[in-house]
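Hi! If you just cloned this repository, the fastest way to understand the data is to look at a raw example. We've pasted two of them here, unedited. The first protein comes first, obviously.
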Amino acid sequence: MTKVLDIINFTETFAPLNTQCEWDNSGLLVGNKDTEVKKVLLCLDITHAVVEEAKNLGCELIISHHPVIFSPLSHIDTHDVCYHLIRENIAALCLHTNLDIAQNSGVNVELAKALSLQKPTLYPEEFLCVGELTHEMNSDEFANFVKEALNCRGVRYTKKDKIKKVAVSSGGGGEAVFLKNKYDFDALVTGEIKHHLFLFASENELCAVEAGHFNTEDVVIAELVKKLAEKFPQLSFTKSVSLTDVVNFA
């Protein structure tokens, strides 16, 4: 019999909870460690649709990247996702910043793999992974390469003639533009970039590519499914199909 605790103990071997940021809220956020598990659904975010999907599949546990509880709760409304989880008796294990910086199957490592970066080096304290393209590109070529590799509907980017060394920082990693000189990269791929960060990138000859929060982090979910299935072949692990990128482009 496999329990939620057994899965937690395994995730501790590659994304230990004590490595999460102090402001984070990773861990088992809904449910009991002693719950028996036979089926698990994995996703980036836990939404009502995801809970329904887990229910229909007969899952006892959902593993997500983003915490389903982030700020302290003063009450739980019947419309809240947490209420939905409790009502359906489905546990929720969330692996957030501890998974971002994991050396083995972490979000930034998987993002670097998705972009086929060579000789990737992870800098966990910076939430950054740096590697090299297989061949030099200009910013237009690179932006289209990122769009295709991450299955983006669109990307925003700044111009640069020659790109070889690339840094990735998943999700809201736009401030990594300030690490350009420290790690000497030509391009940064991240999920969200504010206006002043785009300006900084442009003025400092950096190709900054905003590929979307979902697209830069969802790359880790399939790898987690594979990793957990190899460890627990007696269980069923499924990547959510109900959760997709909600951002559209006109």
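Ok, and the second one:
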Amino acid sequence: MSLKETIKDDMKTAFKAGDSVARSTLSMLLSTIQNRELDKRAKLMKAGATTEADVAEKSVLTDEETLEAITSELKKRRDAVAQYEAAGRPELAAGESAEAAVLAKYLPEQLTEEAVRALITEAIATTGASGASDMGRVMGAVTPKTKGRFDGGKVNQLVKEMLG
């Protein structure tokens, strides 16, 4: 079962259970996934795909692409929580936190900071990085291993810290 199908099933369960937060969050997520599929379809059509059936088949998001959509939406919720808390609006922050909790269920197991530091140390050793000018090479080696499992901004910060 694909990740998208799992989300659809969970939305049906949320409907039946009367869980309005999960229902609205998953509905929004499915809408985001559908929009990304439409964008992908448009790009395939512009590229001169052969048949409509071929385009329809290739425009369905993979689990990895669906995971990217979930990660993007989760980041939006976490940023909104920080902004609402800074503005003194705890009730709105609580709503965004609840949505973030629903989305977080679909992410793979998250890495700890220590594990990411170990990956960065390994990448520095394998790339021969010695300073800030080598940051791109280190990020290129670390990012695929942490994608969807640790915040990219924090990875960037840790790499700067360890190279500096």
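That's it. A detail worth noticing about the second one: The two ends are 45 Å apart (CA to CA).
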